[in-house]
Amino acid sequence: MSDELTNVPKAVSGPSTFLDDRLGGANFLKRNMRKIFPDHWSFLLGEIALYSFIILLLTGTFLTFWYKPSMMEIAYDGSYAPLKGVMMSEAYASSLEISFDVRGGLLIRQMHHWSALLFVAGMMVHMLRVFFTGAYRKPRELNWIIGVLLLTLALAEGLTGYSLPDDLLSGAGLRITEGVAISLPLVGTYITFFLFGGEYPGDDVISRFYSLHILLIPGILLALISAHMVLMWVQKHTQMPGKGRDNKNVVGAPFYPAFMAKAGAYFLFTLAVVAGLATFAQINPIWLFGPYTPADVSAGSQPDFYMGFLEGALRIMPAWEVNLFGTSHAGTLPLSVIIPALVPMGIIMTGLALYPFLERWVTGDHREHHVADRPRNNPHRTSIGMSAIAFYGVLWLLGANDEISAFFHVSLNWTTYAGRVLIFVAPALAYMITYRMCLGLQRSDQAIISHGVESGVIKRLPHGEFIEVHTTPADDIEAHMRGKEPVLMLPAAPDGSGIPPKGMRGPLGKLRARMSKSYGGEKIPLDDGHGHAHEEEHAAVGSADDDHSLTR
Ligand code: HEM
Ligand code: HEM
């Protein structure tokens, strides 16, 4: 089927005609309504991030009706008896009011917090899906960069939101934020004074964070998410390899009605999960922590999960400090804060943003890619991804080293020492194990293509030999396996002269050539052998006959 409009349903053509009479855009609308979307369960992950963002906007707006971003001290006079008469900021008192005195307030506050967690978690797994399937490759690099910005902003949005209730736990986070800001060379003191409105804790940080949290950051997020969606729409989504799918077409279901109905249902489903969690699973019970006082920190303080890796980095860092001008206070560089606050975030975010370009530099692959890779088919990329997850995971776990030490009855110092070793060892191990697993999985694909699927049925042949019956894989599965694009490598010496081509000379060029050779990996061809030995029957797996196809 081509892009041509055929049999547009009345439900689409009706409103289209109405709009066309007024705006003249019916063809545009009709064409887009019939746009084909490929389907795969993992494409739902980005949608989870999208829908939780919508829930955040709705619940956040509700909260702004009652929340007061003020650090003015007042005596609590609400209905939560244990805190009656306690001095606290108006911000904390208003959060208590939302929780206890506003109808549905606690439910909405909890929905806001749960959807914030789901938003960041959804975004992270969505990003991993895009990474492991190579969906960031040409022409989608720009959308990938927008994604990296979205992730960074989401962390900032979470941090500012978490600080708003001004309870003892959120104050512990603010204290760390202040420590990091003030550790920055030259500008640290100025930034801190600006942010906090004077000496810590100051009078302004809550109102500053409020403007950032409800206006600036959500505004940018909204603009970037819209750009993200428009780009995805214009470039069309990637598709998993399969029957009849290639780089020139898109196979799937039309936006209207199939995709629209599904998307609506997924939104409601996400909303139901968030509402269910908010109803049954308590989150951030600020009334138990009490108001923030700079002198107190409660034991077992943990940030929201997405900040855990930074907390872990701070916890395992040795207490290094450099004094540039002898013991003078002005030249002190607290590396124990600067390194953990900036390096992991810097490595992860810069690494993510540059990855598509580094990969292209190494492979020399300038082709457009619309068919996603299966992670096993690009073993080095997959191993690099797993190694980054291990790096992040160790930091994240160490963010809770006090809990680990209390739970497993091991010394806190030992958890720190173990973290300092694991931060180097775990990524290396993850790399090696993943690489071997990818090759193993490729070999198992190869075995299925050349010998068929093991059926578990053992037969005895007339001359006495026992064999296991192998069946042919279903067409879909076989096509899925065969849709494997080998990782490109830079040509060593294209004209056979032995002289390396331009861009591969000099020390950097040599490094590039070596990386390219290695990134290309051990090639495991999908050889046919002699067809499927001992085939007897077809594995019955549904085929995608009801799919529509569109040329790109
Ligand atoms: C888009 C991403 C957003 C994230 C990740 C996020 C995250 C958070 C978090 C973690 C809290 C602390 C919740 C608690 O008190 O337990 C919070 C509070 C708050 N958020 Fe957001 N939020 C987002 C968007 C918004 C938006 C768009 C608005 C307003 C339009 C908003 C308004 C508020 C308000 C008023 C509070 C204070 C609530 C209270 O203390 O009870 N948020 N946010
Ligand atoms: C606010 C957060 C985000 C939202 C709401 C969002 C939403 C989406 C949605 C709904 C899709 C299409 C469905 C899918 O592939 O899952 C998509 C595709 C995409 N997203 Fe995101 N995303 C977000 C963050 C990110 C991040 C953090 C990255 C990467 C760093 C990223 C990179 C991409 C790319 C490259 C595509 C195109 C994928 C393809 O065609 O296969 N996104 N996004």
Automatic annotation (TrEMBL):
List, separated by semicolons, the cofactors it needs: heme
The signal peptide here is: none
Task: Cite the EC number.
Answer: 7.1.1.8
Which InterPro entries does this chain map to?
Cyt_b/b6_N, Cytb/b6-like_sf, Di-haem_cyt_TM
The main location class comes to membrane
Which reactions fall under this protein's catalytic activity?
Answer: a quinol + 2 Fe(III)-[cytochrome c](out) = a quinone + 2 Fe(II)-[cytochrome c](out) + 2 H(+)(out)
Q: Which residues cross the membrane?
A: 48-67, 113-132, 144-164, 176-197, 209-234, 255-281, 337-358, 379-397, 417-435
Q: What keyword terms does UniProt attach to this protein? A: Cell membrane, Electron transport, Heme, Iron, Membrane, Metal-binding, Respiratory chain, Translocase, Transmembrane, Transmembrane helix, Transport
Compartment(s) of residence = Cell membrane
UniProt name for this protein = Cytochrome bc1 complex cytochrome b subunit
| Pfam families (alphabetical) | Cytochrom_B_N_2
Native organism: Nonomuraea diastatica
Instruction: Report the superkingdom from the record.
Output: Bacteria
The segments labelled Disordered in the record are 519-552
Q: Which PANTHER family match?
A: CYTOCHROME B
| Cytochrome b/b6 N-terminal region profile domain span | 15-241
Q: How does it sit in the membrane?
A: Multi-pass membrane protein
Q: Name one GO cellular component term.
A: plasma membrane
